[in-house]
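Practice problem: predict the structure.
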Amino acid sequence: MCVRHAGLLVRLAFGMLMPTTRCYYEILGVERTVGAEDLKRAYRRLAMKHHPDRNPGDPKAEEEFKACAEAYEVLSDAEKRSRYDQFGHAGLRQTPGHDFRSMHVQDIFSMFEEILGGVGGFGGGRGGARTRRGPARGYDLETAIEVELSEVLTGCEREVEYKRLDVCATCGGNGAKPGTEPTTCPTCNGQGQVQQVGFGGMFRMVNTCPNCRGRGRVVTEHCPGCRGSGRTGVKRKVTVKIPPGVADGTIFRLQGEGEPPPPEASSNGAGTRGDLHVVVRVRDHEDFERDGDDLITVLPVGYAQAALGASVTIDSLDGDALVEVPKGTQHGELVRVAGRGLPNFRSGRRGALVCMVHLAVPKRLSEKQRALLEELAEIEATSVKKKPEPGFWQKIKDTFSGS
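Answer:
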């Protein structure tokens, strides 16, 4: 029995198997062949359906809203969608993306304002149903790194390279060609929002201006560096220290390593930057399965070792480990070696090396081994299939072969 099968049995016994991640196509209710426009319409319909303002006090609706945003961000990007179609969620592990789980709902609306803005008062800009107080804040980003199980034992460092939007160095973030300045938006007269009157003048809805997207100013001559967006993509490297005992799925938050506030909130990036969330993934090991702070492995022993007891030396993550097999040990029993597992993430105290005893039955026996086992079988009054006496043709064969 290999260690992965053994670990699987242990996890099944204790109910530790994790659920699979939801399919992005199923979240948006579209086929895998969906085009860009149909994808956009599906996302817009579901985002409006699950918006928290339409479902007050319903945390499930907010989770669905964020799940839709995550699915759309991946499927609307040709490169990310190709990776996802080929490898599923595993293909996106080290691909940076926005951390929608920790983002404010209105931030998500402002990200996709060209799709969601100006509908029923849910604009996400200055005219949205809920405006945020305090300084503007940029978007959080998320990426993943992989570490070996041996590095969980000792701790390690990883250099993370990712891409984020930053304030354009050419125009300073206003989107205008150097030497020019943005002008007042003619649609909203610089207010950043417009009013719509409905039901015979009974209701007025204030929405984000569709022309300037809430900025109050428009660019007539676009900056060549950012094409008028005020933001450019830049690559950045940061070093992440991974302490011993880290678990798969642990998230480290690097404050201020995310994106600056969006242009509609702050053209020059003034305000608070978002954070970078680094998700740690621990690679599977060929010989060990992790169970919390314990390490599970398979220990092959012979019949005599299991019956009489033995001291067996095996490899562990940090050198040889001596395993004391008690006499009378049965196949499948667990033998623990304290202090040879992984360190606890908080206390540093190491777990145990848990050895699942596997009775190794030899496929070939020497004459002496066979004779001893047959004698033991007679003592135990056990019916066994003994080696038959050689027949006539076998004796001739042995004669000519010189045996």
